[in-house]
Amino acid sequence: RVLGCTVATSEAEINWRRFLESLLARGLHGVKLIVADDHAGLKAARKAVFPSVPWQRCQFHLQQNAGQFVTRQEAKKHVAATLRAIFNAPDKAEAERLLKAALDTWRKEHPKLAEWAETAIPESLTVFDFPAAHRIRLRTTNGLERINRELRRRTRVASIFPNMDSCLRLVSALLAELDDEWMTGKVYLNLNP
To answer: What is the C-alpha to C-alpha distance for residues 190 and 30, in angstroms, rounded to an integer?
Structure first.
């Protein structure tokens, strides 16, 4: 479901905090996981508003980000394969074991990658705390990225909005339409056993 929408001038913590607090004020409860990219503002707001809700960093974006720490093309392929093995591990213990082995190798071959991965990759393993059937949908922001692409496609026609309210009206209408499609179409994530 689409739970809410707002227009803000940035992705700063204060804007994310207002948005999350507005969801709480409307009765949101039972949040089990927040999946996102490495947005500092959203991370900080989540800690303030939902301190006990776990954070899952998008594995797809992490894999893309890792490439910036490796210069040789053949090394990039090997790093990507190693990350895929970690993300596709059968359980968290195996993922952590594979990460430790990768970090040992990367410290010698790609020290900047190792330094980054030591903090970033563990944030992407939270999904292992959920049932295996749910992991494929919870480990990335693909569902949200699909919505964002559709919003960009549909708002590009307007190109310039006279004010924030006009933008909010159009985006809200588009999100309501997408939400209706989700309710009557194919289920993206079925949480029932």
So the answer is: 16
